[in-house]
Amino acid sequence: MADYKEIVSKYKDIPGGLIEAYHALQKEYNYIPEEAIEVAAQVFGIPKAKAYGVASFYSYFKIGKRGQYIIRMCESAPCHVAGADQVLKTLESCLGIKAGETTADGKFTLELTECVGQCQATPVITINSKPYGDLYPEKISAILGECK
Amino acid sequence: MAEEMRILMRNYGKIDPLNIDDYLNAGGYKSLEKARSMSQKDLIEEVRKSGLRGRGGAGFNTGMKWNFSYSAVADQKYVICNADEGEPGTYKDRLIMENDPQSVLEGMAICGYAIGSNQGYIYCRGEYPYVVEILNTAIQQAKEKGVLGDFNIEVRMGAGAYVCGEESALIESIEGHRGEPRFKPPFPPVIGLWGKPTIVNNVETFANIPVILEKGADWYAGIGSKSYPGTKLMTLTGDIVKRTFIEVPTDITIRQLIYDFGGGIPEGKKFKAVQIGGTSGGFIPETLLDTLIDFDSMAAIGATLGSGAVFVMDETRDIVDVTNRITKFFEHESCGKCSPCREGTKRMHEIVDKINNGLGSATDLDLLGRLGTVMSKACLCGLGQAAPSPVLTTLQHFRSEYSNKL
C-alpha cells in the first residue's frame, strides 16, 4: 500500500492529475491494482466510486493483474480486412489462451484493441505498446520468442 | 498527373526531429517572431483570411475560432492540441509529431499569443507513448532555447477512449474525469478547460500555422479548393497498392487519390468501395469517385473528409461484414452518457451482426435506416451522430449486399 501512495501522491497537486497517476501506476505494475484505486481516492480526496469510474472508463487502463507482456491485437476495419482474425487465431493457439486471458505462468496477456495508429502496416499488434506490423501467422512464433 | 504538395511535411526526412537546431536552421520559429510583431487582431485576421479550416473533422474556420477566445474576457486562457488520433486508418498526426514536432509547438505558441494564453496542453493518445517522449524532448529543447518565450506546454496522455477526440470530452479528460462530452453551448472557445476560454485544434491544424504566417494568407488561400484551402495529409489503407501517406492539395478527386497516388487496386482486382475520413466516414461507390476531396464536396455526397484516412475495399470484400466490424467499434467506444448513442450503437451492432450471420429479415433493413436517422439527429456529440454513417451509406449504395444475406 505504501508504494501506491508514493506513486499517486506525486500527481496530487497537478490539476487533473488523477489520470497521470493511473498512467504512472500502470507503468510500474503493467496494470492498476484495485487497492491502488482506493489509495488514489484518498489522496485526491474524491469518492472511491469516482476514482473507480475514471479508471474503468479508459480502455488503455486495466484494473487487476495482467501478465509481463501485454499483447494487443488491433481489430479495427483496416486490420480486419488485412487478416487480423488469422493472426489472432495463431496468437491464441501459440499462447494457449483466448483474448482477454493471461497465461498460467503470468508471462503473456492477450487483448483486443481498436486502432493503434500503425495502419501503414496492417495487421498490427502491440507488445507492451511497441508496434509490430505487416503480420501473418508464420511471423508470430519468432515475435513471441523475442519476449524473454 | 496531379502531384503531391508537401507543405506540412516540408521538413520530412530533411531534419532531425530530436534536434531543434535543424528546425531553426530550416527557418523554424521565424513565424512565431513575426506573429509577435503583429497585433493580436491582425494575426487572427491573417489566419482567418487564409481560409484554414480545422483538420480534426468539423472543418470550422480556425481564425474565427481563435477570435471567440480572443474576444472572451478571462484571467486565464488555454491552448490545447488534440493529438488523440484514434480514428481507425489514421496516423497522420503521429507522422507530423514524429517528424516535425517543433512545427506543432510553434503553431500552438502562435495561437497562445493570438488569444492571450500562456499555457498549452498536448493531449496525446495513450497508444503513442513513443510520441510522448518525442514531444517532451522537443518541449525541453524549445524551453532551453527560449524560443517559446513565456508560453508553457505540457503533454497529457490519453488512455484509449476514442470519444476523447471530441473537444469537450478531451477537456474533461485533461481535468482528470471520465471523458464524456459536455452539453453545448457554451463552446470551449468561451468556456473550456477549468471553465476558461480554450482553443482546441488538431495537430495538423497547428502544424499549418507557421507556414501560413511565413508565406502569407493569400498564398495559402490560393492552394487547393477555395472553400477548404491548403493541403491535406491522407493515409491510404486497405486494398491499395501504395499503403502509405500522401500530402495533396484539396482540389483533387477521390479517383486521383486512389489511382494516381495510391497506384490503384492490387492484383488486378476491381474497386468496390472506399471509406474516407475514418471509421465514421461514409462508404463511397465507384459512381462517386470523381468527387473532389474537399470538405464541402464530400459533405454533398453524404461522405466526409474527416481525418483523411482512405480505406479501400476491392471486389472480394464483404461490405456487410466490414460494416459489422465498424458497428462493433462504435458500441465499444460509445461513452454511455446519452441514450441515443449508448442504446443506438448497441442495437445497431446487434442488427447488423444478425444480418451478417444470415438471420436478418427485410424489416431489419428498414429498422437500421430508421435507427441510423434518429441517432444522427439525437445523439449528444459527433461520435453518436456520425456512428450510423457507414450503415446508412452502405444501405444506400450497397443494399444488394444486405439483401443477399437475408
List the helices and strands and how they pair.
The complex is a heterodimer of chains A (148) and B (406).
Chain A: H1 2-9, H2 17-29, H3 34-44, H4 48-57, E1 69-74, H5 77-81, H6 84-95, E2 108-113, E3 125-127, E4 130-132, H7 140-145
Parallel strand pairs in A: 1-2
Antiparallel strand pairs in A: 1-3, 3-4
Chain B: H1 20-25, H2 30-37, H3 40-50, H4 62-71, E1 78-83, H5 92-99, H6 101-115, E2 119-124, H7 129-145, E3 152-157, H8 167-174, E4 198-202, H9 203-215, H10 217-221, E5 224-225, E6 228-229, E7 231-238, E8 245-249, H11 254-261, E9 271-276, E10 283-285, H12 295-300, E11 309-314, H13 319-333, H14 339-356, H15 362-378, H16 382-386, H17 389-397, H18 399-403
Helix pairs in contact in B: 2-6, 2-9, 3-4, 5-6, 6-9, 13-14, 14-15, 15-17
Describe the structure.
The complex is a heterodimer of chains A (148) and B (406). Chain A has helices spanning 2-9, 17-29, 34-44, 48-57, 77-81, 84-95, 140-145, and strands spanning 69-74, 108-113, 125-127, 130-132. In chain A, α2 (17-29) runs antiparallel to α3 (34-44) and α3 (34-44) packs across α4. With 148 residues, chain A is α+β, with helices and mostly antiparallel strands. Chain A folds into 2 domains: 2-57, no CATH class; 69-145, 3-Layer(aba) Sandwich (Glutaredoxin). Chain B has 3 domains: 20-221, 3-Layer(aba) Sandwich (Rossmann fold), CATH 3.40.50; 225-314, Ubiquitin-like (UB roll), CATH 3.10.20.600; 319-403, de novo design (two linked rop proteins). By secondary structure, chain B is α/β, with parallel strands linked by helices. Chain B is built from 18 helices and 11 strands. Chain B has a 5-stranded mixed β-sheet. Chain B has a 4-stranded parallel β-sheet with strand order 3-2-1-4, sandwiched between helices. The interface between A and B is large, with 36 and 49 residues.
